[in-house]
Specification:
Blueprint (H helix, E strand, L loop, with lengths): L9 E2 L2 E4 L1 H9 L3 E5 L1 H8 L9 H15 L1 H7 L3 H32 L1 H9 L3 E5 L4 E4 L2
Parallel strand pairs: 2-5
Antiparallel strand pairs: 1-2, 3-4
Helix pairs in contact: 2-5, 3-5, 4-5, 5-6
């Protein structure tokens, strides 16, 4: 039976959560947030995301791709060790770009309720508490 004024509706192990509860729970370490690393870049580039993060993401993603593919081919004619070094640095840049994209997504989710709803509804994040209960946005 639901108590008067209680916001969390039980759906088995799933509960409803609004943005204010999400921000409060995250800031007080009551919620664990797992951002999908493979989709974080597309969320950063989405129309709802903060426009200040987009240029950095585009630049570093492009730099990583250049360091892994075309630059090593050119460096191969100079010295193969430079080519291998370029690939190694490029892979590190790509990994760092993905990590920063997840951080951009999380920061934008905290600051903007529309972006939070968009990411959660698109399945780009899993929100859980310490007991393993999953949270969904309010309808």
């Amino acid at each position: 039976m639901k108590r008067e004024g209680e916001n969390n509706m039980h759906r088995g192990k799933e509960r409803v959560l609004d943005h204010k509860e999400f921000v409060d729970g995250y800031k007080h370490n009551r919620l664990l947030v797992y951002v999908n690393k493979s989709r974080a870049g597309s969320f950063v580039l989405s129309p709802l995301a903060d426009k200040h993060n987009k240029p950095a993401h585009i630049f570093w993603a492009g730099a990583g791709v250049l360091l892994v593919f075309p630059i090593p081919l050119i460096l191969l004619f100079i010295n193969w060790i430079y080519s291998v070094g370029s690939i190694a640095v490029g892979l590190m840049v790509i990994k760092a770009t993905r990590k920063s994209a997840t951080e951009f997504v999380l920061q934008n989710m905290i600051e903007d309720e529309k972006f939070w709803n968009y990411v959660v509804r698109q399945g780009g994040v899993v929100i859980q508490d310490d007991e393993g209960n999953k949270y969904l946005p309010e309808d």
